[in-house]
């Protein structure tokens, strides 16, 4: 009985943490993705994000994807662990690249 209650509480804790992370990520996407605003619901945010990423792939091919992977995985091939989702100090690529993510400028 006790272990079932502990397990249930643990699952509730995980759900709360995940839903908070999803909300924070969707809030960030709402700032970055066209046609989204602060009051856009999560499903619509994900739909517009998918459409926007497909558009970027059509225009730039896989070069942006590869550059992003290189920036966030480096030479090791292992994903670099980021800080908080809202942390503005995200690693960025070669500053000479036209697609570089620069925290000091709006892309």
Task: Describe the model.
- This protein has 107 residues and is an all-alpha fold.
- It folds into two domains: 2-59; 62-107, no CATH class.
- It has three helices and no strands.
- The chain has helices spanning 2-32, 42-60, 63-73.
- The longest helix has 31 residues, at 2-32.
- It starts with a helix and ends in a 34-residue tail after the last helix.
- Helix 1 packs across helix 2.
- Mean pLDDT is 74; it is low at 85-107.
What brief labels describe this structure?
3 helices, 2 domains, 0% strand, mainly alpha, single chain, disordered C terminus, 107 residues
Strand-helix topology:
Elements: H1 2-32, H2 42-60, H3 63-73
Brief overview:
The chain has 107 residues and is mainly α.
Distance between the termini: 54 Å
Mean pLDDT: 74
Spatial extent as radius of gyration = 18 Å
Structural class: mainly alpha
What is the N-to-C succession of helices and strands? HHH
The parts where pLDDT drops under 50 for at least 5 residues are 85-107
- Quaternary structure annotation: single chain
Number of strands: 0
Q: Based on CA inertia axes, which overall geometry fits? A: flat
Main sheet attributes: strand count, strand direction, barrel closure: none
- β-sheet strand percentage: under 5%
The total number of structural domains is 2
């Amino acid at each position: 009985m006790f272990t079932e209650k502990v397990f249930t509480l643990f699952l509730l804790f995980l759900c709360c943490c995940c839903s908070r992370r999803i909300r924070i990520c969707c809030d960030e996407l709402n700032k970055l993705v066209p046609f989204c605003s602060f009051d856009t619901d999560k499903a619509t945010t994900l739909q517009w994000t998918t459409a926007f990423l497909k558009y970027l792939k059509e225009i730039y091919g896989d070069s942006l994807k590869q550059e992003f992977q290189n920036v966030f995985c480096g030479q090791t091939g292992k994903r670099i662990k980021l800080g908080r989702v809202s942390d503005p100090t995200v690693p960025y690529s070669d500053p000479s690249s036209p697609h570089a993510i620069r925290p000091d400028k709006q892309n």
